[in-house]
Amino acid sequence: MRDKNKGFSLIELIVVIAVMTVLTLGITLALSSVGNRKVTSAAETIKSQLIYTQNQAMSKTLAYGQIRENDEGMYVFVLTSGTGSKQRVSEKKLYASDTIEIYYKTNQDGAQSRGTKIDKQHPCNITFQKSSGSLEPMVEIGADNKISYQTGVYIDNIMVTSKDGKEVTLKLFSKTGEIQIEE
Fold first, then answer.
1. How many Cα atoms occupy the beta-carbon half-sphere of 90 within 13 Å?
2. Which pLDDT score, from 0 to 100, does residue 115 have?
3. Of 43, 55, 85, 175, which sees the most CB atoms within 10 A?
């Protein structure tokens, strides 16, 4: 007797290809959602650190939040300053800077502007008023701890983006100090 079964049937091949397609799609979506969660998590961390900064500013001499990049990645810091010395109160690592990018826009940037990318040369410093908790104008902090305000310039938005295009925006309201996350 001869065995007629010498290979796979067409239906078996189609089933295997369909299963492989579904698995590939599932893995792709899972990896994509990991990147999306990193962006959302980074935005939520920035928001919580800025709220902490606001609380510190209302109870201390001076407190400011700083988002910056260093050799290890993106960080958000809460710093207090008094009588010429800086003290780091809180530090949270967001993610490696090759995973996400963070930009900020001011009320002076045009609608079409992407804003300023936060990197080693361009940190983002945010302060709040002691009496009301509203945003202070944008500040530059020198190496000697001297603070200079940019009168009338307020940070409106902080955008956290992933390499694959996911973006989460933190809207900052200068008059109230409120911070909202928009996805």
1. 20
2. 87
3. 43
